[in-house]
Design a protein that fits this description.
Length: about 375
């Protein structure tokens, strides 16, 4: 099972929109998918996918030792997709103990599915961080606003510190040092992670080595939602650089989702936007993200000849052009209906053309790498 966690540093950035629609997109690729609402205490994911409220869910499972997790899984109207409700009306569902957390993680990850997509709560409490860390694919959703990008950075920092805390024994002198910093608060905010790890290594080499080993496998991924202007991509670059330089982690960029009025219309209709309007700008962006997620677990033993590499490169360009043409057709419908002005249309086309050009540059770069590797004797 591939576990995907969708998180955000703050609320209102479209985390549930991505989690729900991505789960459906993966299911459309003949994958068995379970979508779990892990926004414990504030669950409402059922509204996004048009699912009827359930009388049992994660709240029941957490509070009732006899409840089996298989009994709270619901079928949906979408092929290959099942749903686990968060059951936010159950008192205390958000405040789970460590044994309850371990039980929930063990049961969910043992379910029969190709993908488990977890829609986590917003913020950085320890439960959210632990759920994020069990995922093979952890996705952080943010928006171009200053507060959202800052909170995305802080979320990644908090995940790393959670990894750090769980790498040392409670009786270790390194843990005592961490606790002293935590109580001070200000010192922990100002410390550089690399300098802190060096200090902790002097106190507990085994724990520091364990953290570094965990960190090697930590690969967070980013989605920028509610884009209005291609210039907003500069904020993505700054965030990636900050995470790399200050936290020592490479942040993988999965893609952007432009602000789209179809999102509101789909939500009001209680339909996922990729079902309400598959050709919408935001829907096409979600499908592209799904394609990238599917590639994460793609069999690397498959070899491509130079001819295949050339064909793949050309296909990617044609797919991008096809997406663009579909979006233009959808925009023309809005233009004729009066819901979109000519100025809006021109600006949207300009933004999408920018995105296509960026994809072409990426494809050229990948092609060059494949050809160079092949010439060096590697099978690619």
């Amino acid at each position: 099972m591939q576990v995907i966690a969708v998180a955000s540093g703050k609320g209102g950035v479209g985390k549930s929109l991505l989690a729900s629609n991505m789960a459906i997109g993966l299911a459309e690729n003949d994958k068995k998918v379970i979508l779990a609402d892990l926004d414990l205490g504030g669950s409402n994911l059922h509204l996004v996918i048009g699912q009827k409220p359930s009388t049992i869910g994660l709240g029941s499972f957490i509070n009732n030792p006899k409840q089996k997790i298989e009994e709270i899984i619901q079928d949906t109207d979408y092929k290959n997709l099942r749903f686990i409700s968060g059951e936010g009306e159950v008192p205390g569902a958000a405040n789970i103990t460590t044994p309850q957390k371990k039980k929930l993680i063990n049961r969910m990850t043992s379910l029969d599915a190709d993908y488990l997509v977890m829609d986590l709560g917003a913020g950085s409490n320890s439960t959210i961080l632990d759920f994020f860390l069990i995922a093979g694919c952890g996705i952080i959703v943010t928006t171009p606003t200053l507060t959202a990008t800052l909170n995305a950075y802080l979320f990644i920092k908090n995940v790393l510190f959670r990894m750090l805390y769980t790498s040392f024994n409670r009786k270790s002198p390194a843990m005592s040092y961490l606790e002293t910093l935590r109580k001070d608060g200000v010192s922990l905010q100002k410390v550089y992670l690399s300098n802190l790890v060096d200090k902790l290594r002097d106190l507990d080499m085994a724990g520091a080595d364990l953290f570094e080993e965990k960190k090697k496998h930590f690969q967070p991924r980013l989605v920028m939602n509610m884009m209005d202007n291609p210039d907003d991509l500069q904020k993505v670059d700054k965030l990636i650089i900050s995470v790399r330089d200050y936290l020592g982690v490479n942040l993988d960029f999965l893609g952007v989702l432009y602000r789209d009025e179809f999102q509101k219309k789909a939500l009001n209709s209680r339909l996922p936007v990729i079902k309400y309007k598959p050709g919408a700008v935001v829907s096409q962006g979600i499908y592209r993200i799904c394609d990238k997620v599917l590639e994460i677990k793609m069999d690397e033993r498959i070899n491509l000849s130079n001819l295949d590499a050339e064909f793949s490169y050309q296909s990617a360009g044609m797919e991008a052009e096809s997406d663009f043409n579909d979006k233009v057709q959808s925009l023309e419908e809005l233009l004729h209906s009066g819901a979109l002005t000519q100025g809006d249309l021109i600006e949207t086309i300009r933004m999408q053309q920018y995105e296509i050009n960026k994809l072409k540059k990426e494809n050229r770069f990948i092609k060059a790498k494949l050809v160079k590797a092949s010439e060096s004797g590697f099978k690619v």
